[in-house]
Amino acid sequence: MSDERYQQRQQRVKEKVDARVAQAQDERGIIIVFTGNGKGKTTAAFGTATRAVGHGKKVGVVQFIKGTWPNGERNLLEPHGVEFQVMATGFTWDTQNRESDTAACREVWQHAKRMLADSSLDMVLLDELTYMVAYDYLPLEEVVQALNERPHQQTVIITGR
């Protein structure tokens, strides 16, 4: 293929790509789920949140299960205006008290719902949320409803196995 023919072909490709990009300008949030066995889910989520903060976005974090002990992510992000709400009971398999765990989950879930309804938040990270649904601390329908009713531009990251 000659250089001229190649250039013409690539120009047509560019025109098609440019047209698709022009059509895809709807600014909307997405839902990202990091799940699976092994490590890295929370790290990936916090990496994405840190990048958002670095671009001037407003982020909120709700941590289910993790407990209130200090962690590097919180130490890094809180001074940049990231709100953290943490389920204070720690690992539910350590407490072994379903009533207490459910109450703690419901309490922090109220903060999560507030964040999910807050149009000033560009991103909400729901760390270990999948456990709360899997352990029946939260009804799936309620979680789905809150996600569906969130502001159009808000991105949500969910982690857990």
In short:
Strands 1-5-4-2-3 form a 5-stranded parallel β-sheet, sandwiched between helices. The protein is elongated and about 75 Å long.
Structure characterization notes:
This protein has 161 residues and is an alpha/beta fold. It has a single domain (27-159), classed as Rossmann fold (3-Layer(aba) Sandwich), CATH 3.40.50.300. It has seven helices and five strands. A five-stranded parallel beta sheet has the order 1-5-4-2-3, sandwiched between helices. The radius of gyration is 20 Å and the shape is elongated.
List the helices and strands and how they pair.
Layout: H1 3-23, E1 31-34, H2 41-54, E2 59-63, H3 72-77, E3 83-86, H4 92-95, H5 98-117, E4 123-127, H6 129-134, H7 140-148, E5 155-159
Our Rg estimate from Cα atoms comes to: 20 Å
Question: Which bin fits the share of residues in helices?
Answer: 40-55%
The CATH fourth-level homologous superfamily: P-loop containing nucleotide triphosphate hydrolases
Fraction in beta strands? 5-15%
- Spatial strand order of the main sheet: 1-5-4-2-3
State the main characteristics:
161 residues, alpha/beta, five-stranded parallel beta sheet, 5 strands
